[in-house]
Amino acid sequence: MSTYGLNEIRIGMKLIIDNDPCVVVDNVFVKPGKGQAFNRLKYRNLKTGRVIERTYKSGDSIKAADVADIDAQFLYSDGQEWHFMATENYEQYALREAEVADAKLWIKEQVECKLTLWNGVPILVMPPTFVTLKIIETDPGLKGDTSGGGSKTAKLESGAVVRVPLFLQEGESIKVDTRTGEYVSRAKE
Amino acid sequence: MIRELVNMSLVQKNKPTWQPSAPLENLQTRANLLKEIRHFFAKYNVLEVETPLLCHTSVTDPHMESISVCLQHQPYYLQTSPEYAMKRLLAAGSGAIYQITKAFRQEERGHLHNPEFTILEWYRPGFNHHDLMNEMDELLQTVLHTTPAEKQTYQTLFQTYLHLDPHHTTLMELEKCAKDHGICVQASITDPDTWLSILLSQCIEPHLGKNNRPCFIYDFPASQAALARIQPGQPALASRFEVYVAGMELANGFHELQCADEQRMRFKKNLAARKSAQLAELAIDEHFLAALEHGLPDCAGVALGFDRLVMLAIKAAHIADVISFDFSRV
Fold it and tell me: What are the residue ranges of helices labelled H in B123-169?
C-alpha cells in the first residue's frame, strides 16, 4: 500500500487515519527557525463527516486510501438494504442504513447519486444537489396566499420533512436543495 | 481581509508557470526595502559582506537538513545560514558586518517557507542581545513603519497565554496543556522543548506583534540556546531572542557564544541527536571552531527572513507573492 510523506500531502488527497478513510481539507507546514518541523493536517473523516485537525512531525508519512467516487442509480430499498447500480458498468451495490445515512431522506427510485467506494466497498452516498419530490402530507393550503410570508411543514414522498410556503398542497411536487434541506421552488409535473 | 489575501495568492498560482509568482509591483517593494536596509547599515558604518554558499560541511542542528551537491566527487553543502563564515570574518577583525544572502533548507515548503530564500544577517561587536533588539526595533520602525516594539520574556509569555512556567514544567503538564487547547499530536514526544515549541507556535505566536507593534521574545530556556551564550542561574537562560510581527516569526538573534569548547560540546550533542534520528552524518566545521579559539569578539548577531519582511510590507499571505519565481516555477 502506498504512503505519502507529510510534505507531499495536498488538499483533496484521500488518506487512512485511525483506520478510517479521510479526505485532506488543509495541510500547513509549521517550522520554527530553531526546532522540530510539523504539519498541521486538517481532514474530514469520510465515514462520520467530522473535520479533525491533527499535528504530525513533518518526517512522518500516512497511508493512502483507495477511495473513488462513482455515479450510481438508486434502484429500490427493501427497508433493510438500499440497492444502487453503477451507471458505467451496471454493477450493483447493497448498502445498509448506516451507510445511506441522511441521503435516504432525499432519494427516490431511479435518481442518480454519487457513491464513494473505499477498496471497492461503498461507504457514502451523496444525493443530487437538487431533487424533485412530491408532498405526501401537509396542512391544507391557503389558496391565493402567494406572498411568501409564512411557511408550514410538509412531508415528502422520500420521507424528508421540509418547510414550504403556505400555498402548496398535498400531491404537488417541489424542488429541494439537499445540502441545506431547503425548499427551492414548485416543480412542473 | 485575510480571505482576500489568500484569494490574491490563488490568482498568482493560476498564472502560467513561465510567469513570475510575484506581481511585479511587489518586486518593486522588495527592491525598495533592500535599498532602505543598505542605507540603514551604511548610516552606522556596518560593512556589507558576502560569504560562500558552498561549504565542505553544514549545520549540525538535528532539525535542519542541508542540501548537498557533488563537486569534484566530494559532497559540498548549500548553506542554511551564513553564520559560521560571518563569525570567521568577525574573528579575523572585520568589525560590524551585515549580509543579504540566499540560504537553502531541505524539505521546507509552505506559505512561509521556500527551499531557497533570502536572509538578512548582521553582527554588532560590543552589543548584547538587548542592544541588538533595540537596533532591530529601529530597523523595523524605519523600513516597516512599525510602532516601538514590546519585549517579553519567554517565561512571561507562557504564563500570560497558557498559565504555565516553561522553566519548571513536566512532560505530562505540557501534554495536558496542549490537549486542553485542542491540539492533537500524532507522535510520541519525549522532550519538553518539542512541546514548548508546539505550544508557542499554535497558542502564542498568533497573538504576537499585532496592531503594527512588533514583539520580541527573549531569555529562552538554556536547552534551546543553539549558538547563544547561557546566563548561569536558576534556571539557566539562553541569551537569545526572536521577533514576531503580525503573528509571524521574523528573526532570531543571539548574544553570541564565544567559547570554542562549549561550542564543540554542543556540536557533538547535535551529532548524537542526528545519529539517533538516523539523519545524515556531518563533519564539525573546524574552520569555525578555530576562529572561536582564535577569539570571537563579544558580539550579538541576528538573522532575519527577508522574504517575510517583504510579505509584511505588502501584507502578502504567501511567500510566493514576494519572490520572483517560487519553487513551483524554478
Answer: 129-143, 154-162
